[in-house]
Amino acid sequence: MVFSFDLFINAVVSGILIGGFYAGVTSGLSLSFGILDIVNIAHPAFIILGSYIAYICNATLGVDPILAAIAVMPVFYVLGSGIYQIYYVSFEKRGQESLRGLAFFFGLLFITEVTLVLYFGVDYRYVEAPYIGPSLHVAQLDLPLRILVPCVVSLLMTAGLQIFLTRSFLGRAVMAVAQDQLALRLMAVDPIRIKRIAFGISIATASLAGAFLIIIQPVEPSVGREYIGRIFAICVLGGMGSLPGTVIAAMLLGIVESLTSTFYGPSWAPAVSFGFLLLTLAVRPAGLLGR
Amino acid sequence: MRTPLFLLIWLAVSAAVFAASVWLGNDYIFFACYVVLQYVVLGTAWNILGGYCGYVNFGSAAFFALGAYSTVAIYQLTRENEFYGLPIPVLMLIGGIVSGIVGFGMGYLTLRLRGAFFAIATLALAVVLQTLVVNWDYVGGSRGAYIIRPEQIEPIGNYIRYLFLLMLLLAVAAITIARLIEHSRLGYGFASIRDDELAAEASGVPTLRLKLIATTISGALMGMAGAPFPYYIGYLQPSSTFGLDYAVNSIAMPLIGGTTSWIGPLIGALLLGSLQQIATVTISSAVNLLIVGFVLVIFVIIAPNGIVGLIHTYLQRKPEDFVGRRQVEAELPGRVQ
Questions:
Q1: CB atoms < 10 A from the CB of A193, how many?
Q2: Is residue A288 part of a domain?
Q3: What's B321's DSSP letter?
Q4: With a cut of 0.85, is the ipTM above it?
Q5: How many domains does chain B have?
Q6: Which of A57, A247, B150, B191 is the most exposed place for a label (fewest CB within 10 A)?
């Protein structure tokens, strides 16, 4: 293929846009895996669940998928808190989170996926919104609104999460629980309650991330699996639990994936994230902005 | 019990199973039992790393598919010349070696870090290997590959019986290896890693080397289980060969049976595998996967030591193991890097 500058620039820009979306998708995991040390491999399944809820709201009520997702966030928060409570009582308390806790989340991932398959089938579903379709044209750049809108909202969400973590009391308590649970207890804060809230927030972000996903691409239940490698790669590359690191890593992955699919073909793109993950683990396990 | 005696008993059992299946004379039995035995091997292989060392492998499907696809690659390679139709035991050996090498490489890159990274990397490995296979036209790409199975094989007759017999022998081999490991220095080393890796490292257990051995053996066995699969199924296709059901089954079976001894995966695989075969015939294949998911989640919450653990508590032989110490550990602040 002839190397064309236009193509290259467009690939980079669309990579940055997709990266912004990845940042939003990963921020929930950065909270649960990065900060709380809960290896929630079912996170993509919750994202897909969010996609389907956005799809139902959009198809039956005609609501904008992002607004629908924001409305559903409290439900996801409660779901997340409930799951953390089960996880805590059954695994963390007994010190078995490494093997059985992982299996637990894997089972959740599997149940969600199979239930969605049984209920909706494996057809691709998509949503309708005014910003799906048109593009902005700036100089030679093509900015499809269906990617631009999720990117902006997802960066806003990540920024909001970062402000929450660094400025509010609760957010600081969440950061503290990652560092020293015992010290937090000595300050008369219940670490389990803080963790429950944080995990609830992490699952709540999945609702919004699901809406972004279904705006960007049609969704079927097993799409989430592609995202497992991707979001964990971003989380590890960015540095566990660092949201600014997550954003940088997400953009980086987005650009490399976009270049790969432009110049080698889209069927190779899933391999990129794994390469990133292995490279990070081998060279710098602490990630870019690791603590 | 000595290992030769153990092996002899199991060989006798398998001879009996084979004779009984032949006597029943229904070829479907062979098809169904082959799958169950395949799960016995996968479950036992998973347990060598997951149960003995405590490292979770979500990529069973990847190792299984590696074995299957090395068979396809060799099939394509030898189609033109006189090596056509390499005997299946040889293919199993090759599949085992390929998967073993990949397991070793994976382990080398990720096992120095915390266990969770290894688990995630195995999950990602499945996606990447699938991407490679989809893009590799030589082994069929996303269209899949056909393998033409011979109708008959000389002393045994029907080919599916031959495959069944091979899988039976592989299952016996896997169980014997697992038991051998369990009662050896290697097994005690594995157990020390599972219980407290830091302490094991501090007392001079070569943890990385042991973990690499476990990953290699486990991966190789999974590859060996996958190698005859193309001949069994006749048509191999990436999305089903890399399917999540192999991964979830090979995790669910040991966890349901009990992870600390060789008999756990065996019980789990026989029970869950037969249940699934019956459910597939009577209800539907999607529902039976849902059953596996629910059974897995319920078992890890309610019966952490599986069926074997339940029997132990029922017989009152096992004191409440390590609960006190574990609790202290869980309360300890900070993370272990």
A1: 12
A2: no
A3: -
A4: no
A5: 1
A6: B150
